[in-house]
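Q: A small favour: would you put together sequence and structure tokens for a protein?
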Amino acid sequence: MITRLLVANRGEIARRVFRTCRSLGIETVAVFSDADAGSPHVAEADYAVRLHGAKPAETYLDIERIVAACQAAGADAVHPGYGFLSENADFAQAVLDAGLVWVGPSPASIAAMGSKIEAKRLMDEAGVPLLPSLTAAVTEFPVLVKASAGGGGRGMRVVRDPAELEREIASARRESEAAFGDGTVFLEPLLEGARHVEVQILADRHGTVWALGERECSIQRRHQKVVEECPSPGITQRVRDELCEAAVRAARTIGYVGAGTVEFLVKGDQVAFLEMNTRLQVEHPVTELVYGVDLVRLQIEVAEGLALPGSPPPPQGHAVEVRLYAEDEDYLPQTGILRRFEVPGDVRVDSGVEAGSVVSAHYDAMLAKVIAHGSSRDEAVRKLTTALRRAQIHGLTTNRDLLLSVLKNRDFRAGDTHTGFLDGHEPGLKHLDELAVLAAALAQAAANRAAAPVLRSLPSGWRNVRSQPSRAVFDEAEVVYEPLPDGIELVHADPSRIVLERGGVRHTFEIAHYDGKVCVDSPGGSVELTPAPRLPEPVEQVAPGSLLAPMPGSVLRVEVEPGDRVTKGQAVLVLEAMKMEHQIAAPADGVVSGVHVEKGQQVEAGAVLAIIREGDS
């Protein structure tokens, strides 16, 4: 029986496993890097062991240090979570060799499926439908370069131009090596317009294998899932049965024990095996809500040798999950302090952060998963939409607007999704709520009066003879707040709450003030505004043609030298941030007049990386 369990992971999944452990009376152990010393998962564990360093390779990917942490903390079991070492057979074997319980499949099963190249060979022998593997001599495009050892979109590249194949293979290898410790990649045809559908399996040591239905995971950016749901809204019962039968066959072929996921591409009636993930998936909550199970508890019970019932419970209703990331509209990760984090409503929130958490450049930018369950798909989507719209998320730019645009999209509502969905459904420009801007101005005026050393009862900007209206200027908008616009009545005003009435309807706004930012939240959504300074400081000028770092990161590679001619879109250098490579490309044809960084250098957002002088000379 397990008494003290170490989670060889961080953030959201560590907290998720701890939650189940607490319900089972199992003590918990966290490991943490220097960058994670103040993270919530460290505070929630009964015991915690520091892994000195910040980079994944020297902390969460170091097998010897994690096994040593188990011994130091007296743990008798290890749960790997997802990512990092969760699909590393050597790690699983090292845990077993140390006399500990491994909460996962056998090292042999991990090895068989951990190499996606070997997995395809085994699945072919088992009669599971799949796409052919290609060689670097491929002549038909587009193709997909994939990491053999991992997932989550890392080490994956779509290649449409043969001239880019060699470079993209090299880039995928580096990214895979950094994320999983294995740079092996392979090529497949790109099946465009297909759905990404996966089957949750669970198997015990006594021969029982469950298929807990399927999850639709088609909406992705950078090959990472953004929206997941259970069941899939767009496949037939015949395809559903074929997927589940193929998943069970795959599990039995390798003698699988534990929780795992078998992933497929589905286009019409065509089904093709993608890969098998020998771990718990990020999106497992939608299955838990629909089937009424705790998959982490079942993982632990299977690891303790307990037998599963002969068949899984029946599904009930529909669940939809979205992944909330700290990233901008270009999907670039953001760093900084999360000032406030509150998600209301009848939803489940699995997060690795809380108000005050620091989001660094070292790890994945996912803040939380927000999941809604309902008796129908429409009900689940409505709950999730309302929760996201009312959420208070301050301090970091997030993908909330993207998620809301997906949930409200007509094609999504109809269940018409595929892996290229976001390419054809770019969110439009966000409408700036004029009442929210007015509320920000009124709250700012109230804050100014509250901070005044004398005569606080006088209205802000009061004069004996008024000659000009009172005006607030933000970078995003400008508004006159005294006198109020026609038809608007001020019901209540203080620095943190404004109530306005228009057309007989009252609108309530909650206001939060931070250094240089005003956040306005209401049932209609959220707005972040930047007050324009009355006396702007001189800004540092950068040379025309400067390429600026879009985020903090490390310079992975410099592709050019001063004097080189470049064409628009050509790679100038590559940054590494949050375990992903980000290519910095030339904005126009020109000549490199300066390179201001070198390989391995750490840079902050906004730093000048290089300068491109447009033209031929």
About this structure: The longest strand covers residues 209-221. The mean pLDDT is 92. Residues 558 and 573 are 4 Å apart (CA to CA). The chain is about 25% helix and 30% strand.
